[in-house]
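Appendix C reproduces, verbatim, an entry submitted by the partner laboratory led by Prof. M.T., so that reviewers can inspect both the input and the predicted structure.
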Amino acid sequence: MKKILFSDNSLRDLINFRGDIIDSYAQDGFEVILVAPKTCDYIPKRSNIRYIPIEMTRSGMNPFSELKYLKTLYGIYRNERPDYIFHYTIKPNIYGTIAARLCHIPSTAMIAGLGYVFNNNGLGSRIARSLYRFAMRFPQHILVLNSYNKEVILKERIATSGQVILLPGGEGINLVHFNN
């Protein structure tokens, strides 16, 4: 059975925004693994979907905490050996793609928005941009939702044009579920 892993900084957001994609893989017979901090109590009830809780600070930049997070992801990836990994949000994108590379597992990074890191020139933002620049060499694909993000990523040399895929219609959010 093929194994797909999803890594995010929030279980709630992972299930809320990517639940249909996760469910589709599960229906197609994949073993699906969700890796994220426990930010809700709901976990899909399919036998081929598993959840691995992980600790991480979503906004902190303590080097020891960041290294611990990287090491934890590396351990999970090494033990689970998924066939492919999807990363969402900044820390899973950075540390997850590095861990996937160390484990020789192909991955995709989803950059929904560039946000504060690219709109600020403080020390923390510069460090984060450098980490992005280093880590984004590793995923096979980087998904972006608008042409501005694609332009910035290419201009800042975060990734190559062959890696970046623009999803102009969005990433497939269920519009029936989010109808307000």
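The chain has one domain: 3-166. Additional entries are available on request from the coordinating office.
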